[in-house]
Amino acid sequence: MKEKSIEIKVGALVVVCLVLLVGFIIVLGDVRGSGGFRIPIDYETASDIKPGAPVKIAGVPSGKVKSIEYWGGRKDPTSGRRVVVRVWVDVEQEKGKTLHENAQFYISTQGILGEKYIEVDPGTFERPVIKPEVAQVGMPPLRMEILGQQLTKFSGALTRILENNEKVVNDLLVHADQTVLDTKKTVNDADKLILDNRDAVKRLIDRLDTTGDKIDRLVSTMEHAIGDGKQIKRTLANVERVSAKVDDAAEPVLSDAKAVTKNIRKLSEKLRDQPTSEVLLGDRGHGKVLGVIDRVDGALQKADKAVDDVQAVTENARKGRGTVGGLLMDNELFMDLKLLLKDLKRHPWKFIWRE
What we know:
elongated; alpha/beta; 15% strand; seven-stranded mixed sheet
């Protein structure tokens, strides 16, 4: 009977231990029964994240990292994007439906030991919800070793600059100290100047107050003189009416002036391109004028020819050529004619009767 009782106690103890073990596994492993919203996330580096790492949405535990695949730059046939590392995560179904297209997936560090996990920013609520099994692009993590190397390089370069320019840096510090001292001295001198001339500063302030009062009174006087502005409005209205009348009266004059200017411009263009007579008389009148000019020119040519003939006859007569020349230049023939004429005067019947 005692042996049977001991076996029962040992069995109960084993069952309790198994229950506690399962409870510890569930609590420590953050095991959840609800999942099924699988999301592939593409990273440039896995940053030492491991399968089973937690996934948190807005800081709330929501799932686990299921697997990590190294693609090595292979192109994804669905998105056409080259992938280095693809991390598959499994989040709770309800929480997965709150992730939007502009959600951000970070690889972060938690705890003292620096355990890696994936932090998810769900994005803006106005954007559409992401679909499961559709690859998302993760934000590259901050790599402390690379940052440390860059800081080391920067500090080394800064140290070399300071070592190579030690004198320049010392001069800058000396000048900075001197500038601070000069500024302090200037402030002290200004304070001393104000303290030494307190009465003058007070009088200046009083004068400024007085001037301000005068300006206020001047403004009040102007406001009183202007009143509600009706007189100014009436004056402006009269000016507008007068200007409108002037515009109405000037418009015909301007139109006529524009027309005259246009005609003068046309006439000047014609005078530049055509003869003046053709522009002034027209085509028909210009033709008549040209005909008259041609006739006058012909008459003048004939007159010139007649004058040339007369000159030739006169020249021949002067030289004794021809009948007229012979009569004028031959004395014997002239005397015979003279005697003949005398004879005819004495005996006129000789015209009728010949012996």
